[in-house]
Design a protein that fits this description.
Pfam families: At2g31720-like. Its main location: nucleus. It comes from Glycine max. It is found in: Nucleus. There is one protein chain. With 250 residues, the chain is an alpha+beta fold. Helices cover 34% and strands 22% of the residues. The protein has 8 helices and 7 strands; from the N terminus they run αααααβαβαβββαββ. It is elongated and about 100 Å long. It starts with a helix and ends with a strand.
C-alpha cells in the first residue's frame, strides 16, 4: 500500500473535490484511508462526504472505546472471581525465575599458583590444595567498621570443609541456640605469606549464605593496603587436618 506522503504527491495537482470525482469510478465509501487524507487535504471532499467521514470517525471511536471497556471489565471480573475463591483453589501467579549465576572457568581449568606460593605450601607440608573463588573486594570488605571478608557460598567452586567443620559452623556458644556462632578457626596466609588466625563463620543472608572471615580481617587489609575493587584468588589447603586459606593478590 502506498504511504500517505505518496498519495499526497499523486493528488497534489487536484485542487477541489469535483476534479477528484471525475477520476473516481466507484461511489464514495468512508474508510480509514479517507479519514487520514481528509485530515490534511480537506478540499478533496464534498461537504456530504465530510459529514460521512465525521460519522465514520465517531462510529470507529465508539467501537474502540467499547472494546477497551470490555477488556477492562473482563480483567476486573476475573480478579474478583479469583479473590472470592478459597486460597488453596486460586491459580498460582506466574513467577519469573532469575537465572542462576553460573561461574565458568576458562577451559574449565584451575588457575596456576605462583612458584613462591607453591614453595611456601610445600614448606608447611601442605596438601589438598583447592581453588575456591575469584574475589573482587567490595567497599564492605575493606571498611574498618565491617572487619570481615565475605565469600558467597554460591560463588565458591568446590567443597573445602569437612563434615565436622560444616556442623561446627552451625553451633552457637550457648545451650538454647540463640547465642553467637562459634565458627571454625582458620590460618590465613596473606599475599606476602604472613600468617593470621581468624574465625570463619557462616551467615545466612537474603540471597545466599556466605562464609565470612571475621575479627582480625582488618589487620590483613591494613598490612596489604587492600582497597575496593582489589582482585584476589582464594585457595584452601591443609596442614595435617588443619584448614588454611591462602590469598593470592592479582
Amino acid at each position: 500500500m502506498r504511504s500517505l506522503e505518496t498519495l499526497k504527491e499523486l493528488v497534489a495537482t487536484i485542487t477541489d473535490w469535483k476534479s477528484l470525482k471525475k477520476m473516481v469510478c466507484k461511489p464514495f465509501k468512508p474508510c480509514i484511508l479517507h479519514l487520514a487524507i481528509s485530515q490534511h487535504v480537506t478540499q478533496l471532499y464534498s461537504e456530504e462526504e465530510l459529514v460521512q467521514l465525521n460519522n465514520f470517525r465517531k462510529l470507529h471511536s465508539s467501537v474502540e472505546s467499547k472494546s477497551k471497556t470490555k477488556n477492562t471489565d473482563q480483567r476486573v471480573t476475573g480478579k474478583r472471581q479469583i479473590e472470592g475463591m478459597p486460597k488453596e483453589e486460586r491459580p498460582m501467579p506466574a513467577v519469573i525465575k532469575k537465572p542462576k549465576k553460573i561461574i565458568l572457568m576458562q577451559n574449565n581449568q584451575t588457575p596456576d599458583l605462583p612458584a613462591e606460593i607453591k614453595n611456601r605450601v610445600t614448606e608447611l607440608n601442605g596438601h589438598d590444595i583447592k581453588f575456591l573463588m575469584h574475589k573482587k573486594l567490595f567497599c564492605s570488605d575493606v571498611k574498618p567498621n565491617s572487619n570481615r571478608l565475605s565469600m558467597p557460598i554460591n560463588e565458591i567452586m568446590c567443597e573445602f570443609l569437612t563434615e565436622a567443620e560444616i556442623a561446627k559452623l552451625d553451633e552457637r556458644d550457648d545451650t538454647n541456640g540463640k547465642g553467637r556462632l562459634v565458627g571454625v578457626e582458620v590460618t590465613v596466609l596473606d599475599p606476602c605469606m604472613r600468617e593470621f588466625i581468624l574465625p570463619l563463620k557462616k551467615w545466612s543472608m537474603q540471597r545466599t549464605d556466605t562464609y565470612n572471615l571475621v575479627k582480625n580481617w582488618n589487620s590483613i587489609v591494613s598490612a596489604n593496603k587492600f582497597e575496593e575493587d582489589q582482585e584476589l584468588q582464594i585457595w584452601s589447603f591443609r596442614v595435617d587436618n588443619k584448614l588454611y586459606l591462602l590469598l593470592n593478590k592479582l
